[in-house]
Amino acid sequence: MDADVIVVGAGLAGLVAAHELTSRGRRVALVDQENAANLGGQAFWSFGGLFLVDSPEQRRLGIKDSLDLAWNDWQGSARFDRVEDEDSWAVRWARAYVEFAAGEKRSWLRGHGIELLPTVGWAERGDLRADGHGNSVPRFHIAWGTGTGVVEPFVRHARQAARDGLLTFHHRHRVDELVVADGAARGVRGTVLAADDAPRGVASSRERLGDFELTAQAVVVTTGGIGADHDIVRRYWPARLGTPPAEMVTGVPAYVDGRMLDISAEAGVRLANRDRMWHYTEGLQNWDPVWPGHGIRILPGPSSIWLDALGRRLPDPCLPGYDTLSTLKYLRTTEDIAGYDHSWFVLTRRIVEKEFALSGSEQNPDITAKDRKAVLRDRLLGKGAPAPVQAFLDKGADFVTAGTLEGLVEKMNGLTGEPLLDAAGVRRQIEARDLQMANPYSKDAQVQGIRNARRYIGDRLGRVAAPHRILDPAAGPLIGVRLRVLTRKTLGGIQTDLDSRALGSDGTPIDGLYAAGEVAGFGGGGVHGYNALEGTFLGGCLFSGRAAGRAAARQTA
Ligand SMILES: Cc1cc2nc3c(=O)[nH]c(=O)nc-3n(C[C@H](O)[C@H](O)[C@H](O)COP(=O)(O)OP(=O)(O)OC[C@H]3O[C@@H](n4cnc5c(N)ncnc54)[C@H](O)[C@@H]3O)c2cc1C
C-alpha cells in the first residue's frame, strides 16, 4: 500500500482531515491536481468569516445569542424538506454543527492559533420573518488573517508531517477514478499533469504526462464544489430559481471544477441535493483578475438602493445583505427582467465609505496581514473608502459616479449600452425613500432596517452609514454599481453520515470511503438545506474534515 489513507484535495477540508490522521500516526498521501503554490484551496482566498453562536465576542458587544435562537434560524433557513431521503443526514449534521458553533468550535480554533476580530458582522439579515431565513443577531466572526489565517495552521501541520515522513504530497495528480472493490474503497487512479509553476489561483495547464494509481486502506474525498464550471452550474440550476443568467462572474478558482462528483457517483456513491447552490447577486468583475472570469462579491451594508435592470426598486426581503436566494429568485423569475443579467446599487459616497466591504483575503490586506493598527486606523477611524474599494471605484468596470441623479442614470445607461433606465422613474423612487428619512421611524422596510441595524453597536461604529437622504448633495457624489450573479458555493454533494463516511446508493456506508468539505455539501450532503447563514462554509470544512480524519484514523488503527 502507498499510504494508510489517501486524501484527495488539499483545500481546508483535506488539510484538516490529513492533520487528524497524521497526528494519530497514520501515513497519508495528499493528492491534488494543482501545484504546491495552491495548498489550502479556496480557503486561502476566503474572507475568513466564521459562524459562532453565543461567543465572548458577541457578548462583549451586547448580543444575546443562544443555541435555541441559532437552531431556530438554521431551520428557518435550511427548510429541510427531504428528511426521509436526501436530507436524512443533513438534518443531523445541521444540529451537530450548530452545537459545535455554540460550543467547542471557538476553543478548538484557538487551540490551532486562530484568533478572531473583536467585531462581529451581521450577514444574511433575513427575510423579515421570525421563523424564516436569516440571522436574528450578528454571528459573522472574522479570523485574524482572513481565510489565510484559518488555513495556515493546517498547511503548516501538513508540511511538518511531510518532513516527519508521515505525509506525501502528490501535486499535479488529478484523480479520475475511485477504486472500489468488493464494496470497499482501496485507492485512486488518475492523470499526472505536466508541471506548471502558475502562481496561486491562476488556471493551470491540463496537459497529460501519464497515469498513476495509489492504494490505501481508506480514501477521503475533499475536492470542493462546482462553482468554476458554469455548465455544471446551469445543468443543476433549479427551476425554482428561474433561468440561469447567460453570463455570470466566477467567484472561485478554476480548480473548483466539480468533476469529482460524477466520478464519485460512477463509483457507486450517493449524491444528494445537487439542485441546491449558493450564488451571490452582488458580483463585480475584478479589475485585476487572477482566475478566469474572476468576480468579487460586495458584502453590502443595508443602505444602498437596489434597482432591477429596468430601474425599479426591488421589493423586500430583496434588500442589500438580507436574503441572497430570495433576491436571486426575484431577479431570475420576474418575467420582464429575467432576460437581463444585471441589477444596480445606487448609493452615495458616504454609503460606499462606510458600508462597502469586498469578500476575499486579497481584498482585505490589513486583516490578512493581521495588522491591527491598520484595521483600527482605516476601518474605524479612517476617512474615505478602504483602499481596495477605492481601487474598484477608480478602475472597476461596473462603477459610475456623477454629481446629479440624471447624470448618473445617463452613465448607467451608457454602461449597458441601452437606455433601460428612466431618470424620472428612478428619481421618483429615490425621493419617496428619502422622504422616509425625516423621522426616527418609517413605513419603509429598508429604512426601518437601517435604523434597526444602527441599534447594534458593531453596525453603528463600523458598518452602517448614518441615515441620510440619497439625494443629499453633502453625501455625494452619487454612485451606480452594476451587479452580476457570482457563482460560489455548492450546497449539495456526497451524502455522508456523522463520521463523514460516504454512503452508497443503498444508503449504507461504503467501507473505507469518506467525504468532507464542499464536495459533501459541508457535511451530510447538504448541511445548509436551501439557504446559508454565512460563515458556515469554512466551519463546515473544519467540522466535517475533522470527523473524516478521526473516523479514518479509527478505521486504519
Ligand atoms: C473569495 C472567497 C471568499 C470566501 N469567504 C468565505 C467566508 O468568509 N466564510 C466561509 O465560511 N466560507 C467562505 N468561502 C467558501 C470557502 O472558502 C470554501 O467553501 C471552502 O474553502 C472549500 O474548501 P474545500 O476544502 O471543501 O474545497 P477546496 O478549497 O475547493 O479544495 C479542493 C481541492 O481539491 C482539488 N481537486 C479537485 N478535484 C480534484 C481531482 N479530481 N483530483 C485531485 N485534486 C482535485 C482542488 O484542486 C482543490 O485544491 C469563500 C470562498 C471564496 C472563493
Automatic annotation (TrEMBL):
GO terms for molecular function: steroid dehydrogenase activity, acting on the CH-CH group of donors. SUPFAM superfamilies: FAD/NAD(P)-binding domain. Signal peptide: none annotated. Pfam families: FAD_binding_2 (PF00890). Keywords: Flavoprotein, Oxidoreductase. It comes from the Bacteria. Residues 4-538 form the FAD-dependent oxidoreductase 2 FAD-binding domain. NCBIfam families: PRK12834.1. This is FAD-binding dehydrogenase.
